[in-house]
Write a structure and sequence with these properties.
Length: 239
């Protein structure tokens, strides 16, 4: 395996299950605490959630966090205490800045169809900013990394992050497609569904992740249709 390349398997993640939710956590979350796995770079949450029909997260608070939601299947309805409301669906980028405090809910309003999404949290550059909300349709993605959310200078993303050192990219690969990861101090590669070969490191599949540290871009080659979420981070928590 190349230096500074760590594969994290889906089977090793903590899982929260309720009658309406299956949530798989890439990092410590809620009751699942591992002091050796609290974050990577600036990324502190990478939850892969499946929410049953006519259910969801009731109103709850957040503070000082940039929260990005990416829907894979179904629709998720967002409402918050700042008066924002949006329906998030595949191909739509969404970010909520919790700032100095916000309440929000996330619901699956469908009576028949579950919603599958990945929710990711990064820390903002500044605390206690005004809460904010943004969504923007990206549409179909292909075999190149498309900036979904970024505060990184020069990165023209669909939505803005209040962090100058982070960018989230996405891609949808067909079998045989190949792309390279960004060159950055910290890169987090997540495969919510599909199968990839990571140059020099082997194969990853549904729910697996790769954490790259101080590594030049590695080639990723799809063995089947694959969705891909890649965080490029030029700083880490604590400097």
């Amino acid at each position: 395996m190349p230096a500074h390349c760590e594969i994290r398997r889906a089977a090793d993640r903590a899982v929260t299950t309720t009658p309406w939710l299956t949530s798989r956590h890439s990092f410590s979350f809620g009751d699942h605490y591992d002091p050796q796995n609290t974050h990577f770079g600036l990324l502190v949450v990478n939850n892969d959630d499946l929410v049953a029909p006519a259910s969801g997260f009731d109103t709850h608070p957040h503070r000082d966090m940039e929260i990005v939601t990416w829907v894979l299947d179904g629709e998720l309805t967002h409402r918050d205490s700042a008066g924002n409301r949006g329906v998030i669906y595949p191909g739509l980028a969404q970010r909520m800045s919790a700032g100095n405090g916000i309440l929000h809910s996330e619901k699956n309003d469908s009576a028949t169809r579950p919603v599958h999404f990945v929710q990711m949290w990064v820390v903002p550059d500044e605390t206690a900013i005004s809460p904010g909300y943004q969504q923007h349709e990206i549409g179909q993605m292909g075999a190149e990394l498309v900036p979904i959310a970024a505060g990184l200078p020069g990165c023209d993303a669909a939505i803005f992050l209040h962090n100058r050192s982070a960018a989230l990219h996405g891609a949808r690969l067909r079998p045989g497609d190949s792309i390279s990861t960004p060159t950055a101090p910290f890169v987090h590669v997540y495969v919510p569904r599909g199968r990839l070969t990571v140059e020099g490191a082997g194969e990853i599949a549904d729910g697996d992740a790769v954490r790259l540290t101080e590594t030049d871009g590695l080639r990723l080659t799809a063995g089947q249709a694959t969705d891909l979420l890649v965080w490029e981070m030029h700083a880490k928590l604590g400097g």
